[in-house]
Automatic annotation (TrEMBL):
It comes from Aequitasia blattaphilus. This is Threonine synthase. InterPro entries: Thr_synth_N, Thr_synth_N_sf, Thr_synthase-like, TrpB-like_PALP, TrpB-like_PALP_sf. Keywords: Lyase, Pyridoxal phosphate. Its EC number is 4.2.3.1. It comes from the Bacteria. PANTHER family: THREONINE SYNTHASE-LIKE 1 (PTHR43515). The lineage of its organism: Bacteria, Bacillati, Bacillota, Clostridia, Lachnospirales.
Length: 489
């Protein structure tokens, strides 16, 4: 299986090369030349562990990894770092199935892929005889940063530099990043929003002069953002696992189609579900849930993607995004793998901030439903589910839960539950009861424990008495300068 670029069909690289590079040189995203079909019966996966399902899915994409290499990566990634043996358990609450993807080291779903990416990357480096130090650059809206820092901390032959919007993350998220140990990790707050951080990182990847300079000093860039195929592939696994799990518990019958609702920002998670469907997983609708930054909702309703609008800060900061990078991979598929077409749409986006897809492309979006939740909808949903069954949703999951309820069909619905409520404790608690609105975020942790009965996760205990270790701040246009300073070049 080889990978090509969404912007140039002539590109052809192996899986390990695509993982190493992160982004194609033309600025496009790596995509498999063909989406493989699952080659086991889902029925057979009913009694498989998460690790076994991971192998069955990932082996189809990472074909230049040996069985031993891939299994080794999987074993190292999905271990006691997760606080439940199932890795991705399902909770049935208020008539829906919440697929809990937040039991990893940093209590957000980014752990599902970022626990394994460092292993995939170092294995890829060995396979390709890369001797250079790999510099991971990541832009984060809050959760990727910590998950990537934790994943790469003290991993040999790697450096990691994370950029986050200074006033765009929760206090817990910020503390998680600022207290990260490891001699190869750096984190920089930028005076700007997530899109500026992401654009800054992409610009550095595409800067040939900077890349040459780096190479001279023995470095090479790679990406831990969801543009890396090494993040997308591990995310397909939990949709397959969830389906097998529902079969096992008798919640669904063999072949029964389900709907999947995904709280969406950069479009990585929902794209993984779509790949799962294309691989043969019985999914009916993919419901794309946005917060008030509803650029994707508008795209699905009108066929026009338009980022020319105000960037809003919401209580679901990991979805505060106006440029959903992974949508490019979907465009590639609905354009019939026409890289030329994608390239021209992306050029238009860059220049005008907007593009419109053709009617033929729109035709192929039937599998998707777009929806969004306002801040008020989100708060009410947290309160509703809590009052109905005592289950506490985080703000991102609540966006999905609200949209899932609104767009309900006759199918059973799996909601991707992307973060622990502890991570967004202030928003969550004040949604449940306004009286919590003025309290200190850290004081509310114990309150959340009391009302939910869910134990305080390790990730939270860790930051309670840790001291910040990082304090770098820069303007959005100084990202290259500070990167050079960190790398001492
Ligand atoms: C990153 C993130 C999302 C959005 O996922 P995408 O793959 O970027 O669409 C949703 N919820 C949480 C908690 C996240 O961290």
């Amino acid at each position: 299986m080889n990978y090509t670029s969404t912007r140039d069909n002539k590109v052809s690289v192996s899986a390990s090369q695509a993982i190493l590079k992160g982004l194609a040189f033309d600025g496009g995203l790596f995509v498999p030349k063909e989406i493989p079909k699952l080659d086991v019966d889902i029925e057979k996966l009913k009694n498989s562990t998460y690790q076994e399902v991971a192998y069955e899915v990932m082996k189809l994409y990472l074909t230049d990894f040996t069985e031993e290499e891939l299994k080794d990566c999987i074993t190292k990634a999905y271990d006691q770092k997760f606080d439940t043996p199932e890795i991705a358990p399902i909770k049935k609450a208020a008539g829906a199935y919440y697929l809990e993807l937040f039991h990893g080291a940093t209590i957000a779903f980014k752990d599902m892929a970022l626990s394994i990416l460092p292993h995939l990357l170092t294995t890829s480096a060995k396979k390709n005889m890369v001797k250079k130090e790999i510099v991971i650059l990541a832009a984060t809206s809050g959760d990727t940063g910590k998950a990537a820092m934790a994943g790469f901390a003290d991993v040999e032959q790697t450096r990691i530099i994370v950029f986050y919007p200074k006033d765009g993350v929760s206090k817990v998220q910020e503390m998680q990043m600022l207290t990260q140990k490891g001699k190869n990790v750096d984190v920089v707050a930028i005076e700007g929003n997530f899109d500026m951080a992401q654009t800054g990182v992409k610009t550095m990847f595409e800067d040939t002069r900077l890349n040459a300079e780096l190479e001279e000093k023995g470095y090479q860039f790679s990406s831990a953002n969801s543009i890396n195929i090494g993040r997308l592939v591990p995310q397909i696994v939990y949709y397959v696992y969830a389906y097998a799990n529902l079969l096992k518990t008798g919640e669904i019958q063999e072949g029964e189609k389900i709907n999947v609702v995904v709280p969406t920002g950069n479009f990585g998670n929902i794209l993984a579900a779509y790949y799962g469907k294309e691989m043969g997983l019985p999914i009916d609708k993919l419901i794309c849930a946005s917060n008030e930054n509803k650029v994707l909702f508008d795209f699905f309703s009108t066929g026009t993607y338009d980022r020319n609008r105000e960037f809003l800060l919401t209580s679901s900061p990991s979805m505060d995004i106006l440029i959903s990078s992974n949508l490019e991979r979907l465009l590639y598929l609905i354009a019939g793998q026409d890289a030329e077409k994608v390239r021209s749409l992306m050029a238009e986006l860059k220049v005008t901030g907007a593009y419109t897809i053709t009617p033929e492309m729109r035709e192929k979006l039937q599998d998707f439903i777009g929806g969004y939740a306002t801040e008020e909808d989100t708060n009410e949903e947290i309160k509703r589910v809590y009052e109905e069954c005592g289950y506490v949703l985080d703000t991102h999951t609540a966006v999905a839960s609200f949209v899932g309820k609104k767009e309900a069909t006759d199918k059973k619905t799996v909601i991707a539950s992307t973060a622990s409520p502890y991570k967004f404790v202030k928003s969550v608690m004040s949604a449940i009861d306004k009286k919590y609105g003025n309290e200190d975020e850290f004081e509310l942790l114990e309150e959340l424990h009391k009302i939910s009965g869910v134990a305080l996760p390790e990730a939270i205990k860790e930051i309670l008495d840790a001291k910040p270790l990082h304090d770098k701040v820069c303007k959005a246009d100084q990202m290259e300068a500070i990167t050079k300073e960190i790398l001492d070049i």
